[in-house]
Amino acid sequence: MTGNALSDFRRIVIKIGSAILMDQERRLLADWLAGLAEDIAGLRRAGKQVLIVTSGAVAIGGRILKIHPRRSRLEELQAAAAAGQVRLVNAYQEALSRHGITVAQILLTPDDTEIHRRFLNARGTLEKLLEHEVVPVINENDTVATDELRYGDNDRLAARVAQLVMADGLVLLSDIDGFYTADPRRHTDAEHLPLVHGITDEMFEMAGAAGSAVGSGGMLTKLLAAKIAMRAGCSTVLASGTVERPLHALMSGGKCTVFLAGNTPAAARKQWLAGILEVRGELRLDAGAVAALRDGKSLLPVGLVEVIGNFRRGDAVTLVDPGGAELGRGLAAYSSEEASAIRGRQSEQIESILGYRGRSVLVHRDDLVWFGSQENA
Ligand code: GLU
Question: Which of 158, 183, 216, 235 is disulfide-compatible with 53, CB 3.0–4.6 A?
Fold first, then answer.
């Protein structure tokens, strides 16, 4: 691929693997990080929003606590992650602050992206941070995650984050510069694919399970991540992070593989919403709310006339017009009980009615799909 692989993206999740962030002795590469920060500052000057998903907590913490990641028990790794995460996020903070960029740490567990209710929370916070022009620095919450309940590798975490914030670009920086038909370190005839439109079973076979010395992901986890992202309307760029200023290299035609999404994130989100099988309730709206939704706005409590059914925050509900016709569906930001209590009220009154500060909208416009109109497209 020639040209700038990142030019079309508006919101980019950049995943940094442990192997490129540190040397063999598990020491952070400060100069490399300084170059990355410079690149990120450049992306932001070009009007793009950036989120970072970084590995490295376990490796750095292991060095501090003098344990080896590959030979230690889970509790030890979790302790290592706790110690390492502080250093890790500090290193990003230091590097990015030189460009006047504020960072914020977010630690996620799979529940935060897989359970709708929690998903709304994590997304709300990330959106706010982006609105404040902060760069979120995200990792798995390794300290509390157990083996059964982990993303396991940060490639998948990064893809889930991309899906969560409806990013249109995911960049996986690792020690390999793209997808090959075989492991290029062992097969000289391995062919590099610059552009991929769809991931096939054959590609999964080609990927095998090759890993690297420091990180936990191999080509397989990268393909799985690209698949999740593509389904969410997000294109994935697989590129080498072993060079100085890796994003700058990508923007100047550097070697990579682009897994091109055929959809936009908004269209993919709507498809996903439309495909949720379990709908738990119904919200009957007044004419004003229907008009506002048609204009692409979110649903506010003031436009809600009646609540039917029993649902929890994050559940899918049907939206119906004053005559009872089904308009579409959305994810409720409030439970049925709460929705009934704030029905017909102004958003500013929510706190005094419920006794706590909730969200100002009942269904966010990103969580809404309209039946039978072109807004679905
Ligand atoms: N979350 C792990 C860490 O920060 C890394 C997982 C991975 O390498 O994919 O140490």
Answer: 158
